[in-house]
Amino acid sequence: MTSPALTDGAPAKVALRHRLSERGVDTLLLLALPASAFMVVLFFYPAAYGVYLSFHPLPGGGGFFGNYRAFFTQPYMRNSILNTFRIALPAALINVIIAVPVSLVMRGRIHGQKTLNTLLVVPITLGTVLVAQGLLIYLGPKGWLNRTLMALGILSNPVQLIYTNWGVIIALIITGFPFAFMLTASYLSGINPNLEAAAGTLGASAWRRFTNVTFPLLAPGLAITFCLTFVLAFSVFPSAQLLGNASGGAHVLAIAAANAAFQDYNYPMASAISVITAVIELIVVALVLGLRSRLYAGSTSSAGKA
Fold first, then answer.
1. DSSP letter assigned to residue 57
2. H/E run at residue 188
3. pTM here?
4. What's the pLDDT tens digit per position in 123-133?
5. What is the CATH number of domain 61-292?
6. CA nearest to 91, candidates 175, 172, 163, 167
7. Cβ distance 292 to 220 under 8 Å?
């Protein structure tokens, strides 16, 4: 025979379970525990420890803010911020700009579309080190590019592309374009083609349809695409180390942090540089997302359907 206490408590437990379920707290939430533990162990804890370490310099390092003071008072270290922007910003912008027309072309039905899509995303599988190593040979003074241009009479002397910022930017474009292309293509596929067709029936040219219809709807997605490609480029290390002048114009923040950690064995300074890198990235992303909030925020898929 069931006791009155159990009988009276059962409805309360059921009601509590329903209230928790409405707030997303149920047994399915347990499935997120492994991923949450993974994030805590391999991301949140190292990040928090790095921030803590950045405020505890080595003995004689100048106190609580010693690492940050040392970074910003040394022109060579401080200039690494500008060097990183000089490389990351053009690479991110070029990737986004190129991704738009390529995505527009691939949006239509063209011959060999699947093959072309595969070729466009192949650089993801190569890795930054392999791409940089290949460009060392391809862009070098005796590489295929210079030899071809000189054979055609376009150049009389090899053009210097390696050990310059342009070599690093080219590598970042090759490795970052697949991400920009896939994101742009996915956003573009969400725009209802009936909207462009309606503009065409009203006499709008292809350029007017793009500038007045497609681009305003695509702009919020391009802002997200820029954020991703910028963050990927801003953390550049292998390309700058192999293709750029690592002690000059390609002395980026990642190289400065690596030198502090593995040459000077100053892990607190390396942590401080990493924190500075993260803060700059967050500021740029916040600015872009702030501008994105001023763009079109409505539906792009249902509008215009009969």
1. P
2. helix 165-189
3. 0.83
4. 888 888 999 99
5. 1.10.3720.10
6. 172
7. yes
